[in-house]
Amino acid sequence: MPTMPLSRTQVSAFQAKHSWIHCEAGQLWLSHDGQDVVLERGQKYFVHSGDLIVIEALQDCRYRVQSKATASTSQVTNKAMPTAALVQ
């Protein structure tokens, strides 16, 4: 999947399985399998099951989805922040 831009508050929804979701710019909120996480530039999240993914841009952002088969094992994973960890 190519890099997808989202404007602040714009929403995207899709199915993904065994894939990484990379935040390439900005900040996004991701909901998957009852879990809410926030990704910032350089962070990624792994989707195990083939459930619906909902992404909302918390600020203008870009993200891409990469299947596990094509992901480089040499990449360092930045941990995503749970939404409860956000301080407004």
Account of the protein in words:
This is DUF2917 domain-containing protein. It holds the Pfam family DUF2917. This protein has 88 residues and is mainly β. It has one domain: Sandwich (Jelly Rolls). Helix content is 0%, strand content 52%. The chain is built from no helices and 9 strands. It has strands at residues 4-6, 11-15, 19-25, 27-32, 35-40, 44-47, 52-57, 61-67, 81-82. The strands form 2 sheets. It has a 5-stranded antiparallel β-sheet with strand order 2-7-4-5-9, with no helix packed on it. A hairpin with a 2-residue loop joins strand 4 and strand 5.
Descriptors:
DUF2917, Jelly Rolls, DUF2917 domain-containing protein, disordered C terminus, 88 residues
Gist?
It holds the Pfam family DUF2917. The chain is mainly β. The protein has a single domain (4-70), classed as Jelly Rolls (Sandwich).
